[in-house]
Amino acid sequence: xxxxxxxxxxxxxxxxxxxxxxxxxxxxxxxxxxxxxxxxxxxxxxxxxxxxxxxxxxxxxxxxxxxxxxxxxxxxxxxxxxxxxxxxxxxxxxxxxxxxxxxxxxxxxxxxxxxxxxxxxxxxxxxxxxxxxxxxxxxxxxxxxxxxxxxxxxxxxxxxxxxxxxxxxxxxxxxxxxxxxxxxxxxxxxx
Length: 191
Prior knowledge:
alpha+beta, 4 helices
């Protein structure tokens, strides 16, 4: 016989022997333990896969909840910015009402002094409302020139005050809480 045929026959014999050994091993107690362990491991894998699926679903749900929360928060912030001045406006409305009443009562026969007193009362009320909101006037006249609060429009010689002192105010400056929102336009004394 040829060598190839002999090798093929030996392979067949070996396969038949290994199949016989497998059959005899399947019935052995050791094989049953291995099979039991294999079944137990398969059950654990199934349980773990179920648990993984549960946590994946939970993570997706939490991510969706977070996106909704984020969207709601962004909308709230936009609305807060959009309506931030609402409380100030509500506090200014009575001043507008007072001005309208004053205008409706003005006639040529009215005394100029009474009109001036009425406007002064409205002005004081308006300044008080701004003050309550944290808006303050920058007191400039007689103070040293400060670039943080003043904007010099011109310089004028004045021997009655020290150099670089504010001698006149053309436009009042204002501070809102701790920030200058409008610099005072002033005339400063020269050297």
